[in-house]
What we know:
- The complex is a heterodimer.
- Chain A is an alpha+beta fold.
- Chain A is built from 10 helices and 28 strands.
- In chain A, strands 11, 12, 19, 20, 21, 22, 23, 24, 25 and 28 form a 10-stranded mixed sheet that branches. In chain A, strands 1, 2, 3, 4, 5, 6, 7 and 8 form an 8-stranded mixed sheet that branches. Chain A has a 4-stranded antiparallel sheet with strand order 15-14-13-18.
- Chain A is globular, with a radius of gyration of 24 Å.
- By secondary structure, chain B is of the alpha+beta class.
- At the A-B interface, α1, β1, β3, β4 and α3 of A face β1, β2, β3, α2 and α4 of B.
Amino acid sequence: MKRRDFIQYAGLGASALMLPSLLMGNNIPTEALLEPGMDVALKKRMADVALNTAKSLGASYADARIGRYLNQYVFTRENKVQNVVNTESFGIGIRVIANGTWGFASTNSVTEEGIKKATNQAVAIAKANSKIQKVPVALAPVASYGEVSWKTPIKKDFKDVPVSDKVALLLSANAAALSNGANYVNSALFMVNEQKYFASTEGSYIDQDVHRIWPTFGVTAIDRTSGKFKSRQALSAPMGMGYEYMDGLASEKLNGPAGLKLYRGSYDIVEDATLAAKQAKEMLSAKSVEAGKYDLVLEPNHLGLTIHESVGHPLELDRVLGYEANYAGTSFATLDKWKSKNFKYGSDIVNLVADKTQVGSLGAVGFDDEGVKTKEWDLVRKGVLTNYQAIRDQVHMIDQKESHGCCYAQSWNDVQFQRMPNVSLEAGKEKYSIEDMIKDVEKGIYIAGRGSYSIDQQRYNFQFGGTVFFEIKNGKIIGMLDDVAYQSNTQEFWNSCTKICDKSDYRLFGSFFDGKGQPSQVSAVSHGSATTRFNNINVINTGRTI
Amino acid sequence: MAIYTEKEAREIMEKALRFSTADTCVINMSGSESGNIRYARNTVSTAGHRSNQTLVVQASFGKKSGTATIDEFDDESLKKVVARAQELAKLSPENPEFMEPLGPQSYDESLTYSETTANITPEFRAEIAKNSIAPAVVKETTAAGFFNDSAGFSAMLNSKGLFAYNKSTNIDFTVTMRSNDGTGSGWVTRDFNDVSKFNATKASKIAIDKAVLSRKAKAIEPGKYTVILEPAASVGLLRNMSGAFNARTADEGRSFMSKEGGGTKLGEKIVDERINVYSDPKNPLVPTRTWNGEGQALKRMDWIKNGVVKNLAYNRYWAKEKGVKPVPFPSNFIMEGGDASLEDLIKGTKKGILVTRLWYIRSVDPQTLLYTGLTRDGTFYIENGKIKYPVKNFRFNESPIIMLNNLEALGQQVRINGNLIPYMKIRDFTFTSLSDAV
């Protein structure tokens, strides 16, 4: 089903939340989410049908992914439930190498006959394309893990929580926003469970159960007389967690500057919606920023998106090599810069790390989608570019012997390829609080939450907004600002990084629907950081009069 | 086979409807076959084929609705999907915005299907990649491209007697050509319902020429410039602007179309009087389905006439609330143009910048429809009617409303992403910084 059609069926209308294809699948009743999927022994037998068929047709390598993708999402506005949707998608994707060329086919007919037919198609495509292939595919070696399993360490499975509880929670957040001055509020809960089984001719049979959750809302305040309207989005982060993320534990809350409430591994949606309504109203009369140079103090739920765009994407090896040139683009972080071993990506205190293992993160899995055990590795150490993100068929191009384990497909019917792992800025070694970031700033802006974002196709020039902005003058926050966006160049920006809070302020930001590839696929990824300061950054005023 | 004829689709849907005991029932059915080929570094990287068929049942008891989907159409499956939709409906909360399905409607014949496109083979796709890569190699450029073709049908039947059916085909092609020295980049996009209108060699040549011509670009100061926007450059901003034509958000006071003190800008002049925008599912150059997901008939509709807002879109619920006739959302965007070719527009420009495309467009302020983004894949300085040299890419911060008020001239229309957009010359377009990206 196409997204457009789905939105029509769901009665959401054109202006509702845009739902990427990840959430598509067949609609099922809530209780069907609890039905057990295919038994592991049967999955192994079915996967072996694909692997054996591929080998008998002359493939030198094959992998099979049997996926069951269960999703539930709840949409509300003001005091109304707009929709509750449960979906299920089940099938198998088969990838082969024949004549040194990739081939892929998928089917939702997970029977011996259906799998054989799809494997035949995959091998036929590989053989047909091998006629115009210039260099045969070379895979980095991987261990044979035998039969293993991995599960996101959740405390509450969203599938066990009644829909009525979820609806009640969202409606209470909406009510809190409305009673605190909001004119409109939309809220949503996205919950995802990927049950995926991977098998390959390398001898691995990997069963994984992956969970993700994202509560979010948008609150709008309107001044009818002036015709002005302002929106404030949620300060939640999508997480690789179960429904326990919605518990709003006091131990996971931080007090930010200017009365802000910030959240780590537990989110209080009612509290956030209350503050959001007050802040949206305050924005209607906030001071319009004066363009110029400012020191920026960036909160992790804001900085995460800047890391995503200016570090995560430019260090994807397939982009660097030109495989994504026709869509998202290439990268300024070219191989010669990496080979020089002295390319200053950032200042000396900048350490950027990739991982697929952080507990609670969106990227965390035991094994990637080509059966590689996940790990953590450096991208930038002491400001110097040290590595990229690469998978089995590319890593030899940077003279490395081992895949980084960051291969992913959004579903069984899409081919897996290199996707961004979690990319995070290490917390500072010295003990600094948020207050320490602000107290020695003469002229600055504190920015929290994600906003408008745009970056060029080689990841040099970017412009970012935020959710809320506060003016800093002589070491103190003096009030809210409006119409703020900062423009910078990736290398200049990271080299202007002067101070980073310690790990007590470290939190995760997340992108639930990151797009890449043609046809486009989404993936979910987290970015950790502590509050960080960047000196002397160009800020523009985005206010206009029409 | 995922593409059913009108008769076959109707029979399956009627059978499903007979299993329904709900107050109202709406059945949608669709299917498609699509294929693609992707290439980069002057060689093929991936290729695939997808087949998809779905039947969706929305059953309602009063204002309680449930939706269920299935991809098998035998009797047992049809019974199951209807039963599931009904179970879900009984468990669902009431939707206060529920609207009864429409009764029988009459629709115009659609022009969206081409047999030639439906018959595309893997060999044809490989030929496209070959025809795009071969000339790239000769000109010392590197090709990265994507071609996708699809053929499909959609149909709708409801318990009030409404029936609709449509068959359509489409192809999309994009290619980026980068000079081997890494200093130049060109791009082209093409889309058609009928693939016989598409020529990969000709399209690729445009991207190759731009890659060669854009090598070693000069940096010029950002600021306000007269620009010639190719349709691929303006389409993103214009489509974003069309999103503001939603009556509900305008009435609610949270849209560019909302007015100070309440009310909307319907009937007000918002852009230059030479701007005329309409949608038309029957336009032979950009045909679309002649009905929408609510079963409403789609007809030609004016949105901006002589610079004045002529219509805002009302869905059926909001139209009922406001006591007006529903106005379906547009299925395409057609902006009237003029006779001038791109060459004519360049000839008539003393100083200006030619923009091939705008990239990574994001909303900055919904109040003023301010957007940011960057130029990409061919940006050139024009002086005394001629392209003088390539310039480095710019970041812009601009509103399509300001842009269409600063109109200098309109040129010929071009089909782009299913829309018809003219070449445009605009004065005082706001570039706010330089980008080193090629």
